[in-house]
Amino acid sequence: MGVLILRIGLGFLPVLTFAVILFVFDNFRLVKFRVVGNALLAGAAAGMLCLLVNRWLLVQINLSVPIYARYLAPFVEETVKVVYLFLLLRRQRLGFLVDSAIVGFAIGAGFALFENLYFLYSLHDHNLLYWLIRGFGTAVMHGGTVALVGITAKSRSERLQHERTVNILPGLGVAILIHSLFNHFPLRWQFLASIFFLIGLPLTIFLVFNRSERSLRQWLEAGFGSDAELLEMIRTGTMLQSNIGRYL
């Protein structure tokens, strides 16, 4: 029982902890807890769908499981994971880089939680190193790749001033490549890869947080050089056309 509890902790706590940290770092509270919860559920649904698709494809094509895991599984899983993120971006429900990163990571976290739950149920003989990698490496990889897709897609949309389907493709390509590289490592080397993901992906996302929040503060403060100007905008009913009005 003690080993089982340890496995559950290693498989679930790291990714959940990091998701909570991202949520806490959102100083402007752009993302509500309900949105994060929906993203977690969407990620879990994506994990369930990928389980069925991967099983079907393995039956249909003549590839070994390792080859499939290295080349086809990353394409299938990353594509399915970003569907919900893409819908939110197209509906303009994610206004800034910060919320794109949070929701993206939450989707990947939901996917990882379902995947770890499935392996916890179906595999009983793996050692603690396996669950350490799944919790600190694979789970963070799943969350980090979708977060990177959200960041790159939103950044591209802001730069081009429009939302288009192709905006999500560069980040998706990078996510597939990262996922594929991770799956190329044998189990022992995946431990080192896990350390890289634990350092590299969170650092990238936190740098985006700092950049996004600085940009947001500048954006909100633009055009508010005096109290008289603010009062005039309220009096004339043009408040909602301002940056602060759009934010609210």
Could you describe the 3D structure shown?
- By secondary structure, this protein is mainly α.
- The protein has one domain (2-222).
- The chain is built from 9 helices and no strands.
- The chain has helices at 2-24, 33-60, 65-90, 97-122, 128-160, 169-184, 187-221, 227-236, 243-247.
- It is elongated and about 70 Å long.
- The chain starts with a helix and ends with a helix.
- The mean pLDDT is 78.
Q: Could you tell me the number of beta strands?
A: 0
Q: Count of DSSP helices?
A: 9
The N- to C-terminal Cα distance equals 50 Å
- The number of distinct structural domains comes to 1
Major beta-sheet overview = none
Query: What is the N-to-C succession of helices and strands?
Result: HHHHHHHHH
Large-scale geometry: elongated
- Low-confidence runs: none
Quickly describe the structure.
This protein is 81% helix and 0% strand.
Write the SSE topology.
Blueprint: H1 2-24, H2 33-60, H3 65-90, H4 97-122, H5 128-160, H6 169-184, H7 187-221, H8 227-236, H9 243-247
Helix pairs in contact: 1-4, 1-5, 2-3, 2-4, 3-4, 3-5, 3-6, 4-5, 5-6, 5-7
